[in-house]
Amino acid sequence: MAMMRKAQASMEYLLVAGLITLVILPSIYIFYSYSHKSNEEIAQGMVNRFGTQIIDAAEEVYYLGGPSKTTLDLTMPNGVMNMEIWCNQEIVFFLADGSELGFKSRVNITTNITAGDASGRCCYNFTKRDYSPGLKHVIVEANGDNVLVRIE
């Protein structure tokens, strides 16, 4: 009879431990996926702010004309894999999750590095240092019929 009680207690312990495991594991997965999705949304929001402010500053200095120049202090988030200027009028960010964010301008935008893109859509590139994570000093300068964007 004593052996039967020990077996019953062991079996109850195993059932309780199994039930707790069945509740905790899905909860951990849900929490992880939610936090990962939130981090991606935060990064996309920061890239959105980065691109929008560059375009706004480019249009502003272009319409002011002549030697107009402004410097923006912006933070580049993690997860930006590349950054290009397409057809002199769109800044495109390529993110680690495979998405692309483009920001269209009403004025011509250039940078110092000309792209060797055979498709013809990418006109200018940025260096890896330009889109690495961290604080960036973006210099936007009116340059005749276009706006020069440099990141330091």
- Which strands sit side by side, in order, in the main sheet? 4-3-2-7-6
Structure annotation, total helices: 1
Helix and strand pattern = HEEEEEEEEE
Spans of at least 5 consecutive residues whose pLDDT stays below 50 are: none
Q: How many beta-strand elements?
A: 9
Give the overall pLDDT as a whole number.
88
Radius of gyration: 26 Å
Question: What structural category arises from helix and sheet content?
Answer: alpha+beta
Main β-sheet: number of strands, strand sense, barrel status? 5 strands, antiparallel
Strand content: 25-35%
Query: Could you say which overall geometry the principal axes of the C-alpha atoms support?
Result: rod-shaped
Task: Explain what the structure shows.
This protein has a domain at 49-151. Strand 3 and strand 4 (100-104) form a beta hairpin. It contains one helix and nine strands, in the order H-E-E-E-E-E-E-E-E-E. The strands form two sheets. It has a five-stranded antiparallel sheet, covered by helices on one side. It has a four-stranded mixed sheet with strand order 1-8-9-5, covered by helices on one side. The mean pLDDT is 88. The chain is α+β, with helices and mostly antiparallel strands. It has one helix at residues 2-64, and strands at 69-76, 80-86, 90-95, 100-104, 109-110, 113-114, 122-125, 134-143, 146-151.
